[in-house]
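CO-FOLDING WORKSHEET

Operator: S.A.
Ligand of interest: magnesium ion
Run index: 280
Mode: holo prediction, single chain
Checklist:
[x] sequence pasted
[x] SMILES validated
[ ] output reviewed
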Amino acid sequence: MKISCQNVWKFFGEESNRITALQDVNLGISDNEFITLVGASGCGKSTLLRTLAGLETHSMGDVLVDGQAIKGPGQDRAMVFQHYSLYPWLRVSENIRFCRQLSLHTQNRTSADVESASGRADALLKLMGLTTSAGAYPNTLSGGMQQRVAIARALMGKPPILLMDEPFGALDAQTREVMHDLILHVHRLERTTIVFVTHDVEEAIYLGHRVVLMAPRPGRIDSVYDVPLPAKREQDMKLSPEFTRLKRQLLDRIRETSGMKTDLEQLERLTQIAEEGSMP
Ligand SMILES: Nc1ncnc2c1ncn2[C@@H]1O[C@H](COP(=O)(O)OP(=O)(O)O)[C@@H](O)[C@H]1O
Ligand SMILES: [Mg+2]
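OUTPUT RECEIVED:
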């Protein structure tokens, strides 16, 4: 499914104390694309993602999915958050089936529906490497395993769009690498359109077909970069000149747009003054 943001604005707060979280965002995402949103904290990444999810209403502009204006959350879009929002009292396999079961309850479910849901859950357990943990409770699993459960649960209803807000932010570096290759595999297999938020430039490049760089105060899209890497990613590509060049370019731009560069220059000036002995 395609996503299109046209002149999207989002304000928070009263007029006198207004925060512009999104300023005139224009972005088209094609079917089956993997887009990463990167930028310093406070630049509107989560607000944009929540707007696409229909969890936040935008103040102006249009947000379209396959040409239709979104009207709140829908089964065509699933979301994964940083903190695994699993039900602690349900086992892994029950967590994965839970939301799907609820939606089947509200419709007229047939035994064929239940059977296909059960087949889907088993396939997802296998895909995410969770088969041996199917009977475990979430609190007995590592962070990485819990996040696999959250992803499997999001995929249960075969959503054409997957929205992920810093999903691996709380994981250690090694686990993150494994999760990166896993989500790329999921993307290839399920042909999902993925919008992935991160503040980690390396993660953004490794995963994305395109990287969208956002800037703060006001939150906005600063620039968009095509990732010059083969479609099938491999960890060694992180050492390639193309990767390093784009990483440097993005890091420089983030420093420039977030005011960090000015902070660093000020720090350098202060150090110089101190070294010259003129510091009070
Ligand atoms: N519910 C809210 N009420 C008021 N301000 C908010 C709310 N959510 C986000 N903001 C503000 O909007 C801006 C963008 O926030 P956010 O989208 O969370 O940024 P990011 O995810 O890039 O860190 C920030 O200035 C933040 O303080
Ligand atoms: Mg955020």
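REVIEW:
Residues 45-46 surround magnesium ion (ligand 2) (CB under 6 Å).
Residues 88-157 form one domain.
[x] output reviewed
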